[in-house]
From TrEMBL:
TM region positions: 32-51, 63-84, 90-109, 130-151, 177-199, 211-231, 237-256
Single GO term (MF): heme binding
Pfam families cross-referenced by the UniProt entry: Cytochrom_C_asm
Domain annotation Cytochrome c assembly protein: ranges: 41-263
Protein name: Inner membrane protein YpjD
Record keywords, A-Z: Membrane, Transmembrane, Transmembrane helix
Source organism: Pseudoalteromonas gelatinilytica
GO biological process: cytochrome complex assembly
Any Gene Ontology CC annotation: plasma membrane
Keyword Cell membrane on entry: no
C-alpha cells in the first residue's frame, strides 16, 4: 500500500510540475483546471501515504522523514490553495517537484521511530503546532522571496518574455512576501515562547543546538521584518537574508534528527 501510494503521489507531482513548467512563460499560463486535477490526486495520495506511514499496527512512526512528509504536505496544500486566487506559476513547480523527490526518497531512507503511546499535553501540542505552522509559513515566504528575486532580475534585464508571461506582477509578489514573512515571524515568536514556557530543558545539551539555531533564525527574520516595516528594506540583501534564515531554521528543525535517524543509522 505504501509503495503504491508513494508512486502515485510522486507520479502526479511530476506530471503537475511538467505541465506548469511547459507553460511557464506562456501568456495564458498553465491550465488551472489540469493543474488542480493533477495536484489534487497527488495531494490525496500524499495524505493517505502519511496516514499509513505514521499510524502503524505497532504504534506511531514519528520519524524525521514522516515529519518532513507532513510539513511538505502542508506547504503543497497551502501553495496550491493560494494559486487558485493568485498567480503562483513559479512556486508550483518548485513545491511539486520537491514533493515528488521527497515522497520517492522516503522509500529508500530508513525512518522507523515507533512510539507505542503519545502523552498528549496541551503545552507540547501548542508548541509543536505553532512550530510547524511557523516553519511552513516562513518556507513559503522564502519561496516568494526567490520568486521576487527571479522576476526582478528578469525585469532589470528587460526580458520581454517575462513581461508577456503569466507570472504575477512584481509588486503583488513583494506585498505577499512581506505579509507571509510578518505572519511567519509572529508565529515563530509564539512557538519559541511556548517552548520556554511549557517545555523544560530548552537549553539542555541534547536540545541546545535546536534552541540556539532557532533563535538565530528568529533574530534574522525579525530584523528583516522590522527593517522592511520601518526602513523600507527590500531587494537582494533581504532575499538572501530570508534564505539564510530559512536554511538555519531547517537545520534547527531537521538537522540533528537527520544525522541521528538516517546517517548514523546506516553505520
Amino acid at each position: 500500500m505504501i509503495i503504491s501510494l508513494t508512486i502515485i503521489a510522486s507520479l502526479f507531482y511530476v506530471l503537475a510540475t511538467s505541465h506548469v513548467l511547459s507553460r511557464l512563460f506562456h501568456k495564458q499560463g498553465p491550465s488551472q483546471k489540469l493543474t488542480v486535477i493533477l495536484s489534487t490526486v497527488a495531494i490525496l495520495a500524499h495524505m493517505l501515504l502519511l496516514v499509513n506511514s505514521v499510524f502503524r499496527a505497532d504504534g506511531q512512526d514519528l520519524s524525521i522523514v514522516n515529519v518532513a512528509l507532513l510539513t511538505c504536505w502542508v506547504i503543497v496544500v497551502s501553495v496550491t490553495a493560494v494559486s487558485l486566487k493568485f498567480p503562483a506559476t513559479l512556486l508550483l513547480p518548485v513545491v511539486y517537484g520537491f514533493a515528488a523527490i521527497l515522497t520517492l526518497a522516503s522509500l529508500f531512507i530508513p525512518h522507523h521511530v515507533i512510539l507505542h503511546s503519545i502523552d498528549v499535553e496541551l503545552g507540547l501540542v501548542t508548541h509543536i503546532s505553532l512550530s510547524l505552522l511557523a516553519y511552513c509559513v516562513l518556507i513559503i515566504s522564502t519561496l516568494y522571496a526567490v520568486q521576487f528575486y527571479f522576476i526582478d532580475k528578469r525585469l532589470k534585464r528587460k526580458d520581454l518574455a517575462i513581461v508577456h508571461s503569466h507570472l504575477p506582477p512584481l509588486m503583488v509578489v513583494e506585498r505577499q512576501l512581506y505579509q507571509l514573512l510578518t505572519l511567519g515571524t509572529i508565529l515563530l515568536t509564539f512557538a519559541l515562547l511556548s517552548g520556554f514556557i511549557f517545555l523544560e530543558g530548552m537549553f539542555a545539551s541534547e536540545f541546545i543546538h535546536k534552541t540556539v539555531l532557532s533563535l538565530i533564525a528568529w533574530l534574522i527574520f525579525t530584523v528583516v521584518t522590522v527593517g522592511h516595516l520601518r526602513q523600507g528594506w527590500r531587494g537582494k540583501p533581504v532575499v538572501f537574508s530570508i534564505m539564510i534564515a530559512a536554511f538555519i531554521l531547517s537545520l534547527a528543525y531537521f538537522g540533528s534528527r537527520f544525522i541521528q535517524e538516517v546517517i548514523l543509522n546506516k553505520f
